[in-house]
Amino acid sequence: MSPCQSEVKQSIHSKSILARRKTEDWLRNVMEDKSINFRYFITLTFYKAQTNLINQYLDNKHIKKVILDFFYPNKKPNNRVRVWFFVERHQEGTLHLHLLMEGLDGLTWLMTNNRKISLSKKTLFDIVANDYSMDDVITEALTNHLQTYILRLGKSQQSVDCRSIGNIQKRVHYVNKQLGSINFDAWEHIDFENSDL
């Protein structure tokens, strides 16, 4: 590689790192300004995955509706759970999603509306034995709900990974890794239309 090619490559790499840092700072500022407290990190991997970014954005609208219907089966309040969508492209060209999502108090959520939720026998036994957390109940019920109403997800355990947010700084950094690749132009990995930014 010639010195000129090396300089160009280094310049491109430096610009992508700078763009990623600025994006992460901006997202953290949005969280602070809007008092967003994300509770869950969700990854959706599709059985029949999209390859077209616009089509994925259109699917994200349905996915958001499914999530909101899970938490609010009837009337949707103004101060509802907020979700951010990030699209990532696999090496073979298919797309999957990462979501950052707020949560609700589990008992309030469970008692507020008439609910139909699906849980495994193990979870039911844990509830009876008083050895459970409401977060576990919500994540399992949400996973089952998503797999039921988003047909392209399929039913495998790998299709939905719903977990506690953990370190929010690391999650924000992770969902922006596409800024360092050539898979997307600028900020296409963020679904601005469907995210509550």
Query: What share of residues are in beta strands?
Result: 5-15%
Number of domains: 1
- What structural class do you assign from the helix and strand content? alpha+beta
Q: Radius of gyration, Cα only, in angstroms?
A: 19 Å
Question: How many beta-strand runs?
Answer: 4
Rounded average pLDDT: 81
Could you give a short account of the major beta sheet?
4 strands, antiparallel
Instruction: Give me the strand/helix succession.
Output: HEHEEHHHEH
Oligomer: single chain
Give the end-to-end Cα distance, rounded to a whole number of Å: 42 Å
Helix content: 40-55%
Query: Strand order, biggest sheet?
Result: 2-3-1-4
By DSSP (H or I, 4+ residues per run), the number of helices equals 6
Catalogue the unreliable spans.
Answer: none
Q: Which of globular, elongated, flat, extended, rod-shaped describes the shape?
A: globular
What do these coordinates show?
The structure is a single chain. The protein has a four-stranded antiparallel sheet, with helices on both faces. It is an alpha+beta fold and 197 residues long. The radius of gyration is 19 Å and the shape is globular. It has one domain. A hairpin with a 5-residue loop joins strand 2 and strand 3. The longest helix has 31 residues, at 3-33. Helices cover 45% and strands 14% of the residues. It contains six helices and four strands. Helix 2 packs across helix 5. The termini are far apart. The mean pLDDT is 81.
Short account of what is shown:
The protein has helices at 3-33, 53-71, 106-112, 121-128, 134-149, 168-175; strands at 38-44, 83-89, 95-102, 160-164.
